[in-house]
From TrEMBL:
Its membrane topology: Multi-pass membrane protein
Entry's family note: Belongs to the arsenical resistance-3 (ACR3) (TC 2.A.59) family.
Keywords for the protein's UniProt record, in alphabetical order: Cell membrane, Membrane, Transmembrane, Transmembrane helix, Transport
Protein name listed in UniProt: Bile acid:sodium symporter
Family annotation (InterPro entries): Arsenical-R_Acr3, BilAc:Na_symport/Acr3, Na+/solute_symporter_sf
Domain of life: Bacteria
Record's subcellular location: Cell membrane
Transmembrane segments: 35-53, 65-89, 95-114, 126-146, 158-177, 198-216, 228-249, 261-283, 289-311
């Protein structure tokens, strides 16, 4: 894991603070608005172009892990997201929607890094990526409309168009680019000229989107700073409860050590960039929803880093004990 990836949470916070300061001190808000969605779409295309469908076959040897991860990600987590929002954010409809968007979108990028750090099965983790992506593409409008209740207040067509714009368009462009570069230039050229540069652009594009978001909505953030703090308890509950559930089920089902790590990371990591892009596209007149989604990775990334170390240390001790 590179230094830039290790410091990602810090850089997200710095980008938010810099955008907030710029938005309050300079008249750049209207211009910054037009940067957010294009930066997020470009970032998602860079993420998707690195996806390799060849890994999908590896899920055949880990059917129990796959089934459990799908149940936790697409059944338990939406129910938990609704319960946390209703119980702790009942008076904040925009924050409830922001929390829901964050928690019902499983990660499709950086969880691979933390899985590798924790000595998990990266092949199975990579194979789960397109599965998680397709399912959240299909189910996200359903979750928002069914679980968001009156707080959602968005037309079905608008939400479907937003998901189509944010997920399908970048995914289709990325897959077309992968195929064309492989077909006409070869795998080596694609790796050097497409995949490697795309990997280096993901984080700068995320930071640019966060900067522009806070510059655009600086006054909203300032006016609702205290409200954003109420997101911390439900997020902490989620990021503590899901790893415990995943670890307990892994041991109950007698998954291997590598598969336990993979399951824990897969069900804990969330897809805040996609959720943010959908919030910007579907709820342009409710900026607090999108702003709330930036709070997620500020907690999530340190939690994932700590969790990777805890799981890796625990497994290492177990291996030493078995050898003794």
């Amino acid at each position: 894991m590179s230094l830039a990836e290790r410091l990602q949470s810090l850089f997200v916070a710095l980008a938010a603070l810099a955008g907030l300061g710029a938005g309050l001190l300079l008249p750049i808000g209207p211009d910054a608005e037009h940067v957010v969605l294009p930066a997020l779409l470009a970032m998602l295309a860079c993420v998707f172009v690195q996806m390799d469908a060849a890994h999908v076959g590896e899920v055949r040897g880990a059917r129990t892990l796959v089934v459990v991860s799908l149940v936790l990600n697409f059944v338990l987590t939406p129910a938990l997201a609704w319960a946390l929002g209703a119980g702790l954010l009942g008076g904040e409809p925009d924050l409830r929607i922001g929390l829901l968007l964050l928690l019902v979108t499983p990660c499709t990028d950086w969880y691979l890094v933390f899985t590798a750090m924790a000595r998990g099965h990266t092949g199975i983790a990579a194979a789960l990526l397109p599965v998680n992506l397709v399912l959240q593409l299909l189910l996200l409008p359903v979750y928002v409309l069914l679980l968001g209740g009156r707080a959602a207040m968005v037309d079905v067509g608008t939400l479907a168009e937003s998901v189509l714009l944010v997920l399908v368009v970048p995914l289709a462009l990325a897959m077309l680019l992968r195929w064309a570069s492989q077909r006409w230039k070869g795998a080596d050229w694609r790796e050097r000229r497409i995949l490697s540069p795309a990997g280096t652009l993901v984080l700068p594009l995320l930071y640019a989107a966060v900067f522009a978001m806070f510059a655009w909505q600086a006054r909203v953030v300032l006016d609702h700073a205290a409200d954003l703090l109420v997101l911390v308890p439900p997020l902490l509950i989620f990021f503590v409860l899901l790893p415990l559930i995943a670890t307990g089920l892994s041991r109950l089902l007698k998954l291997s050590a590598a598969q336990r790590v993979t399951l824990t990371m897969t069900v804990t990591a969330r897809n805040s960039p996609i959720a943010l892009a959908i919030a910007v596209a579907a709820f342009p007149d409710r900026p607090l929803i999108a702003v709330a989604l930036v709070v997620g990775p500020l907690l999530e990334l340190p939690v994932l880093a700590l969790l990777a170390q805890l799981v890796r240390v625990r497994e290492a001790r177990g291996e030493r004990a078995s050898r003794g």
